[in-house]
Amino acid sequence: MHYPIGLLFDLLASSSALPWNITVHFKSFPEKDLLHCPSKDAIEAHFMSCMKEADALKHKSQVINEMQKKDHKQLWMGLQNDRFDQFWAINRKLMEYPAEENGFRYIPFRIYQTTTERPFIQKLFRPVAADGQLHTLGDLLKEVCPSAVAPEDGEKKNQVMIHGIEPMLETPLQWLSEHLSYPDNFLHISIIPQPTD
Amino acid sequence: MEEDEFIGEKTFQRCCAEFIKHSQQIGDSWEWKLSKEAFELPSDDCEVIEAPAASQVIKYEYHVLYSCSYQVPVLYFRASFLDGRPLTLKDIWEGVHECYKTRLLQGPWDTITQQEHPILGQPFFVLHPCKTNEFMTPVLKNSWKINKNVNYITSWLSIVGPVVGLNLPLSYAKATSQDERNVD
């Protein structure tokens, strides 16, 4: 479904050794289940669509809409050609917020679990509480995916993974959004069962 | 600068409820489906439409969901031939009526794309929601000015629906303006 490859790995194969061996099919495309990828334009459009949605959440679309078409192109080309500086020259603007606020309006995130029917959980969630305290990753999970978090004295059932690592649940969500988002500016979070070794 | 008019989730639900009520009255097949796990609320309709050029029958299925990111409704749809073969994005673009073609060609990828349905997880075509506020704001502001009742969903769907083959009977709009108790 046009998911980032790292997300697919975390979600489906995180216990596998690298390199990740995959099987590529050339027949019987599952039309009902998967999106086609007809061209690079399709991927660019999907990427930009995610960027726009992320900015709608973070800044009511103000930052991305103020950019010129060439800035949008630069984001895509920077990603496509693996040019970190070229990408971040524009992306850093999407990571800013007004001085009087303590963070973005809402945090762009999606939580994935293979055990549920729903493809992902995405809700409105503010990075800063009414009293000015920064919300943490743990706060987010408790609010939108309580089954993922172990009860206080219970055994840890799941791993909460972003980019192949398990950030501490006390990490402020605003910080995660600024530093651990994927290029599309979303935090793609995998909830996977705790390995039993 | 004029403030854009968004609709909150509760207003979305209320407008959908009124819309469904009328749908049931006229035998239109919209349904309200509540997802167990969360709060997105699809309603869908199966219509069979002739595609004159190919002389083939195409079945459309439309879903109206609420986007909390953009705080507007979004139209998801899928289309297939009667033998089950799905239409491609290119088929959909080509099928858009002439009068909307110019706008579509200005930015096809910004207008109708294919995405994963957020609840069903299956591929659907989507009418991109990022411009919704641009055209809905004047509609809402004008209706307040002339003190006329407007159901957001009815107005919105009557604007975006025809682009993708969904035409609403006029009775939906008449039902809204007759409904006195909705003035709040």
TrEMBL record, chain A:
Residues 106-191 form the Autophagy protein ATG5 UblB domain. Involved in autophagic vesicle formation. GO terms for biological process: autophagy of mitochondrion; cellular response to nitrogen starvation; piecemeal microautophagy of the nucleus; vacuole organization. Residues 41-96 form the Autophagy protein ATG5 alpha-helical bundle region domain. Residues 1-26 form the Autophagy protein ATG5 UblA domain. It is a peripheral membrane protein. The gene is ATG5. This is Autophagy protein 5. It comes from Aotus nancymaae. Pfam families: ATG5_HBR (PF20637), ATG5_UblA (PF20638), ATG5_UblB (PF04106).
